[in-house]
């Protein structure tokens, strides 16, 4: 399994493979870049089909965190951790403590957090073995869930994208397709509804979908049909790699803006979106609200208004990206990566 020659290797500073025989831990921590601060990124527990898949995921996700934190103006670098295991079957306190020891061995260069397959309760167990855990310093009344902040950031991003892509100043009557009404998608749908948008919702969990759609007067469709919905905006809020060449060919929307990580199946899809005249809000810019909230909560002078103001600056960053992308006739994804590298090098 090549590491330095891996297609997703991007001069990562450190890649740590950790194992613990007693608990069965098999984990990889990737520290991509610490020039702006310690690397922060979630811990994902997933039954990867192979070690190679786990390495690909952690390399890509850790680089994404570097770019996300740089463009969100956070004093953080990018890192990520994965455990190769089934969270429903293999997640034991012993496994989490062993992971905590591995995180601790890096002396704070990597700070862990929740991600898919891990919860706040898991972070508390990891904290028994290391201080380098975010998401535990909340005071009473503070949310333990960054999703509302992620959703608010996506909402602000969507407003920016609609201004630049559709030349519309408000969302009244705008038709938006939301793919996935989980933690983030539900908050986003509510906010869009409150702003006057008409929604088409889908989810593989039909129970949650029906109740929400009724409450918001939204249409629903089968998961596969969401790409054909006759809408102005497509908001992917489910899983990654959703924007394949075939999906982009089907989209009727003029704007893509959602919460999901790694929406582009391949980098070339950004050019395809651009060629089709679809304005794409780069995912790691749009969905940074959660990590912004996590960082405020980590630094200890948490104030909700200040957090919200910081989250709302996502729209300013996107305004800058869209203006440059339109002037240079290229994809916003290309400009976002350029801007992130400028901030890292500057
Ligand atoms: P979640 O698991 O709560 O919600 C995802 C929803 O998508 C679920 O309801 C699931 O049933 C649905 N779904 C899965 N596959 C689907 C499909 N093929 N078609 C339709 N629906 C499908 O996750 P979340 O926390 O809401 O996060 C959503 C996305 O945003 C993820 O990609 C996540 O990585 C990303 N993200 C989340 C946050 C956060 O603060 N939670 C921050 C940044 C990025």
TrEMBL record:
It holds the Pfam family ELFV_dehydrog. Keywords: NAD, Oxidoreductase. Transmembrane segments: none annotated. Residues 144-346 form the Glutamate/phenylalanine/leucine/valine/L-tryptophan dehydrogenase C-terminal domain. Gene3D superfamilies: Leucine Dehydrogenase, chain A, domain 1, NAD(P)-binding Rossmann-like Domain. Coiled coil: none annotated. InterPro entries: Aminoacid_DH-like_N_sf, Glu/Leu/Phe/Val/Trp_DH, Glu/Leu/Phe/Val/Trp_DH_C, Glu/Leu/Phe/Val/Trp_DH_dimer, Glu/Leu/Phe/Val_DH_AS, Glu/Phe/Leu/Val/Trp_DH_bac/arc, NAD(P)-bd_dom_sf. It comes from the Bacteria. Catalyzes the reversible oxidative deamination of glutamate to alpha-ketoglutarate and ammonia. PANTHER family: LEUCINE DEHYDROGENASE, VALINE DEHYDROGENASE. Belongs to the Glu/Leu/Phe/Val dehydrogenases family. This is Glu/Leu/Phe/Val dehydrogenase. The lineage of its organism: Bacteria, Pseudomonadati, Pseudomonadota, Gammaproteobacteria, Oceanospirillales.
């Amino acid at each position: 399994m090549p590491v330095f020659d891996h297609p997703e290797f991007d001069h990562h500073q450190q890649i740590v493979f950790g194992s613990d025989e007693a608990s069965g831990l098999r984990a990889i921590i990737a520290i991509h870049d610490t020039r702006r601060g310690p690397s922060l990124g979630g811990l994902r527990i997933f039954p990867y089909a192979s070690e190679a898949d786990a390495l690909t995921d952690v390399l890509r996700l850790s680089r994404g965190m570097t770019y996300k934190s740089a463009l969100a103006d956070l004093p953080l670098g990018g890192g990520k951790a994965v455990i190769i295991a089934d969270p429903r079957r293999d997640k034991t306190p012993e496994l989490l403590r062993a992971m905590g020891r591995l995180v601790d061995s890096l002396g704070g260069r990597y700070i862990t957090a929740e991600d898919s397959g891990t919860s706040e309760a898991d972070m508390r167990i990891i904290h028994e073995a290391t201080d380098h855990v975010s998401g535990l310093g909340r005071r009473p009344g503070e949310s333990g869930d960054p999703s509302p902040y992620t959703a608010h950031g996506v909402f602000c991003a969507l407003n920016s994208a609609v201004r630049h892509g559709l030349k519309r100043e408000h969302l009244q009557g705008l038709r938006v397709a939301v793919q996935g009404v989980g933690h983030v998608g539900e908050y986003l749908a509510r906010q869009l509804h409150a702003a006057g948008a008409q929604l088409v919702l889908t989810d593989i969990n039909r129970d949650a979908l029906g109740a929400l759609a009724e409450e918001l007067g939204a249409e629903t469709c089968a998961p596969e049909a969401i790409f054909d919905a006759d809408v102005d905006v497509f908001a992917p809020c489910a899983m990654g790699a959703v924007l394949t060449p075939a999906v982009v060919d089907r989209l009727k929307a003029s704007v893509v803006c959602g919460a999901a990580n790694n929406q582009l199946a391949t980098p070339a899809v950004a050019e395809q979106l651009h060629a089709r005249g679809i304005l794409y809000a780069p995912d790691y810019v749009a969905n940074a609200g959660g990590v912004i909230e996590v960082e405020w909560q980590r630094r200890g002078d948490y104030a909700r208004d200040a957090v919200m103001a910081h989250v709302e600056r996502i729209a300013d960053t996107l305004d800058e990206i869209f203006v440059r992308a339109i002037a240079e006739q290229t994809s916003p994804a290309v400009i976002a990566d350029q801007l992130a590298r400028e901030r890292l090098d500057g």
